[in-house]
Amino acid sequence: MIKSLLPRLLGLVLLFTGCEAPIVLQTDQDRQAISTAIAGEAHGDYFVGRRFYKVDYKMWGWVKKPGEPWKTSQLVMFNEQKTLAPDRARNAIGSDNNYEYRLSGYFSGEKVYEPASDTFYPEFVLAGASVTSTNPPLIYPDQRWVLPAVRLIGPPKY
Fold first, then answer.
1. Largest Cα–Cα distance in the chain?
2. Which residues lie below 8 Å from residue 119, measured CB to CB, with a gap of 6+?
3. What is the pTM of this model?
4. Burial readout 45-59 (b: 16 or more C-beta within 10 A, e: otherwise)
5. Cα distance between the two ends of the chain
6. Is the pLDDT of residue 38 over 80?
């Protein structure tokens, strides 16, 4: 009986593992593109933001100072009292996932609670945003981090 079940079980295992999409890892080309992009960021009174939309969470994304590596960025909650986030202004929440922005605004010094992650995040008071890239290089360990339904929320690597 067990001998007759073994090929069927093996077949099921192969069937289900074959359905999983391959994991696309960050490459040396991604890291070089990140370095080039960071080197090209003019110093000034603005911030660089990367939209990090997740279905289950309400934080906006990663924000850093120009010229600094992404690993120094902070995952933030937007205060939209002055202006709406770009996707909310278009009534298309998450449509700009992984876009890169030039942001004007400031960190208020306050923390905002996000219940799904049970975490407090820095509040960024948004005053303006303009898209700088709709297809920026991968700043996360692998491509799954960009997927809205995947619950990975760790910091960028580079």
1. 73
2. 113
3. 0.84
4. ebbbbbbbbbeebbb
5. 54
6. yes
